[in-house]
Amino acid sequence: QNRDSSVDNWDHFDASHLSRFSRHRSGREGIAVLGFIVPEGGVESLRVKYAESHPKLILPGSPRTYSGAKVLEVFAYYKGEKRTSDVDPGTVLRFVERLDHRDWVLPGVEKVDASFDGLTSPAYCDHWVSNVVSRTGFIDTLHDTLGLSPKVHFNCGVVAAGEAQIESTVTGNDPGLQTDDREVALRDQSQVYLPINNALSEVGHVHLYLEEIGQGVQHIAS
């Protein structure tokens, strides 16, 4: 439900965002937001890049400044080719710049101590896979705004299983981390991998996903 706070009216909790996502995902559930923590000055720097190269993707009213953080939200995809097509108002990329260490993930979310049963293993995000109409357009958009660049082209970019054919590219950042410590490598979240798929045939899971649901995050892996 809509939230009202005497301290902050946190827009990211507003029910209108869930309604918009549902309308443009054929009413299906899914991953509506990919969130990233950015350093000091990161929100303004990204706002400028989006405003210069992809202004249509910026959500109305964004960025927003709260008592503990700045939040920039942008739509992830265009409906077709970059710049020339309309915005796909489904999946959102959210960038959070913390002004207060207590806002550790998102304004309005409080950190609590967690207890485990001794059998549970921690999981850390490894990659987020998108199914899109224009793979190259999304790659270019991420490069223009976030500086991401392709890391892997599967089998020269084309993957086939029977009659099902897709193109797939993994794009990502260059955090500069170098370590031989397995625990550090496992827990470190500075490396971002975003595999991106588009369909080449009218059969297979990517084609059916796009036809039945629309563009979006197919899955995440930890």
TrEMBL record:
BP GO terms, sorted: L-phenylalanine catabolic process; L-tyrosine catabolic process
Molecular function via GO: 4-hydroxyphenylpyruvate dioxygenase activity
Annotated organism of origin: Alexandrium andersonii
Pathway stated in the Swiss-Prot or TrEMBL entry: Amino-acid degradation; L-phenylalanine degradation; acetoacetate and fumarate from L-phenylalanine: step 3/6
Protein name per UniProt: 4-hydroxyphenylpyruvate dioxygenase
Family annotation (InterPro entries): 4OHPhenylPyrv_dOase, Glyas_Bleomycin-R_OHBP_Dase
Keywords annotated in UniProt: Phenylalanine catabolism, Tyrosine catabolism
Entry annotated with the keyword Glycoprotein: no
EC code: 1.13.11.27
